[in-house]
Structures are given as C-alpha cells and as structure tokens.
Task: structure prediction
Amino acid sequence: MNNRILPKIVNEVQAVTEYLSQRFCDGVKTDLAAICQDENISLIYAEYRNHFDGMIVWDTPRFYIHINTEKGNLPDSNRGRFSLGHELGHYFLESHRAGIRSGIIPPHASVNCLVQDDKLELEADYFAANLLMPRERLRRFTGGRKFSLDIIKEISAKFGVSLTAAVIRFAEVGTHEIMVVFSQDNVVKWSYRSENFPKVVNKFKKGGPLPPTSVAGESFLKRNARYTGVEPVDFEDWFIYNDWKPQWQLYEQCCYSDIYNYVISIVWFK
Result:
C-alpha cells in the first residue's frame, strides 16, 4: 500500500520491478529463480522451524536468500513466491542492500504478516507486489470485465500470489475502483481504497468494529451469516451520508478464514 511509503522508494521500486518483470517473464508469472541466478544470489530452500519465512544474508562475496519450507514456502507456492519476492526487495532496494552488506541492518529475517507496520518490511512487500503483479500486465489481464471476487481469484492463480496480495494490488492499479477492508475478530485492522474510489466518509475506523449491517459485520454478529456471493448493500451500511452520495449501487463480497477468524471485505460501486 504505497500511501505509507516514501515517494522516492515508490519510484525506485517501480523502475526496478518494471525492468525485472519484463526481462524475466515466464508467460504471466515473473521468474524469480532466474532473477536470483542472474544476480548470482545463492537461493536455499530448507526447514527453519517457525523462525521466519525468508531471510537475506551477506556473506562475502555474495548474498544468500534462505526460504523456510516448513512454513509452506515451496518454490511454486503462492506464499513461497511472495516470500522470495520480498527478499529480492531487500536485495534490490539500494538502502536495504547497503545496510545489510555493511552490517548496519543485521541478517534480516522476514515473516509474512497480514498487518505490517515495519518500514523496511512494508517497502519489501511493495517491491514483491510490483515484481509479481506488474501494473500493465495485471490491467491487461483484468480489463473489460465486470468486477467480482472471481477476478481476484484469477489473479491469485495466474500470477502465483495469495488472495490478500492480489486484492491489495488490484486496489492499487486495477481496472475497477474498490475498497478493501481487513478485519479480525470484528476489529478493523486496515483498509485501502483505489485512488479514484468516490470520496465518501467511512462508517468505521481502524481499531474499531465493523459496521454492524455490512456483510462482513453481520458475519461476526449473526449465526449462519457468512455470505460469499456478490451482495447489494445500502450506502449507509459502509459510509456516512453527508448531503451527497454516488448514484450507483453499492456491492460487497467477502472471503473468510476460519483458522485466523478474519474477513476480507471488498466494496465497490457500479
């Protein structure tokens, strides 16, 4: 989510990943192993218990990237691809690489996290998203179709990324304006809007409960209320009415995790 990243870093990420994703394109997917080989990075997949997902280490004369298969980071898995893309962010971003090489930044162990606040980790996540889902490639893939969660699932399958990574990236650069709300145990952890999403006032705050009449909110408050289809909802289920509202119908669609008790809600007008 690049609104939390310095413009200088955003520009660096976009320039580097555009070059890499064009040069190392394997159909739709970016070939991460080929990038490592070209850069003479030693890539090691092994079991490291529950300590990290990925870690980059400088040991003269080269960099080593360790990927933890014990946490599901297999070479072709969605999680494994994002973990490797993230570590490549630490390698290619000049300030990260210089810090790791000089020892100012210690050997850097990274953990995939749905709620991320660390500056370096945010920057590496943004690098991974740009590398795995280049803007123009994603827009060509999704353009000209009615939006629904099915498009996000197709991005996940074709580009080799998680649903969460796919929906965040679509909100940033996709072909339809959406709002994404991530909540856990009925507490909003974060939300993100496409740049051109209508300028309306949310009926929720980070750290507070979901709006109770939203589809996501009802899934926590009512029994047997987990709806997975596209649901038409009222404007005031999600937003505060202040003398103006868009004339389009508002829709919501959710995906759920029983293991972590979270909901990802996608909201859009059409």
